[in-house]
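Same chain as my last thread, 161 residues:
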Amino acid sequence: MSMLQVNRSIRVREVPTGPRRWFGSRPDVGDYGWTGRVWRRWSGRRWASPVSSLQRELLLGEATPATWPMVPPDRLVRGLALAVERQVSLYGADVVYDGPHGVVVAYRRRVSHVLHFVMTLLTGGLWAFVWLGVALSAREERRRLEIDAWGHVWAVPLRSR
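reply #2:
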C-alpha cells in the first residue's frame, strides 16, 4: 500500500427522509449525515453506509464526527488493506489502481451463460443475437475505496466502463 492521504474536513448535513427533495444546496461528496439512528456519508449518488470500519460504534452514536477520536495513520493503511482484501475475496473485485487517495476496485457484471444457452435452444437460435449483445457489452462497475481519519472505509462510485 502506498502512503495514504486522509481527508480530515467535516461537513455535517441532515439526511432527508421521505421524498427526495433538497432544500438549499445539494450535499457534496464526503458530507456526513445523521439519519436519527446511524451516520452516513454522501457518495455523490446517495447516502451510503461504510464498506468497513475500524470504529463501527462511532457510527451508531449521536456524537458528531468532529468529536470522534482519530485513528493513527498506520492503522488506517492496515484498515484500508483489510477492506480491499475483503472486497476481493468475498465479492470478486479486481484491484485496478492503488493510489494516494484510496484503492480503485472493479466489480464485473456477470453474464448468465447457462440461462442464455437455454433461451437460445428454446427460441431456435434467435436468442443467440441477444446473448451475443449482452456478452459483448458486459461492463464493470468501478469504485474507489477510501478511508477517513476515523477508520471508516467508504466506496465512492466512479464512472462505469
